[in-house]
Amino acid sequence: MNIIEEIKKKKEFSKLPDSIVERAAEMAKGDVKESRALLRKYFGVFLTNKVLKGKGDLLKSHMSSKKRDYEKFYGEIFSSGILAARGIPSELETSKEVSSLSGNVGSVIDLGAGLNGFSYGYLKEVVGEVNYLAVEAVGQEVEHMNEYFEENGFSAKAVVWDLFDVEKIKDLLKVQKKPRVVFMFQVVDALENLERDFSKKFILEIAEECEKIVLTLPTESLGGRKKFAVRRKWIMDFLEENFVIEKDFSRDGERIIVLRK
Question: Can you give the pTM of this predicted structure?
C-alpha cells in the first residue's frame, strides 16, 4: 500500500483528491501521521462528523459561513457592479433592484466553496437563478451539496477538484455561461499556506476566463475572539497593479474585494 492509500484509510480523508494528499505527504516528508495532521490543519473545519455526515444546518457548521448574513453579503457584493453598469443611481441600490438585474450574472463559480453551496437560496434571491458551480476538495461536502441542489431543483452543481490544477480550473471556467463571476472566499491564505505567492499566479490565470472575481480575506479569527489587520499590502499591491477594484468593504469578519481586469 502506498502512502496516499495509507493516509486515505482514515474516513475523513478518503474523498480528498490524491494530488492534495500527495502534496501533504511531500510536505511531511512521507510521515503518515504528520501528513494527516497537515490535512486536518487545512481542511479540519470541513472534516467534522456533523459536516461529513451531512447532519443539521451545514451552513452553520463552519465558523466563516456561520458568521455571514448571506442575503446582505450577496446584496452588497452584487449591488455596485450590476447597478453601476446599468447607470442606476446609488440610492436605488436595494435587494429588489439587484434581483431584477440578474441578467448581468450568467454564472457563479465558487472556488474552494466549502459549505457555500448551501447558501444558493440566498444568492438566488439577490441575483436570480443563475448557474452555480461549486469547486471543493472535500468529496463528502460535494456529495451533500449535490443532494441539496437536486432536492431543491436548483440550477447548481458541485465537483471535486484540486485548485492547484489551474489548467483544469480554467477548463471548467471556459464552459460556464457568461458573464462569469468567480468566488474565492477566504481561499488566498489557504493557497499561500501551501505555496508562497501561488495565489497571485492563480488569480492572474483564472482572470483570463471570467469577467469578475470576488475574494475575501478574514479580519478576525474564526472564533471571532481576535481581530487583525487586513491591509495585506503584498496582495493589495498586486491586485491594484493588475486589476480594477470595483468594491472593497468589510462585514461579518471579512474584507470583501470585487475586481475585474
Answer: 0.82
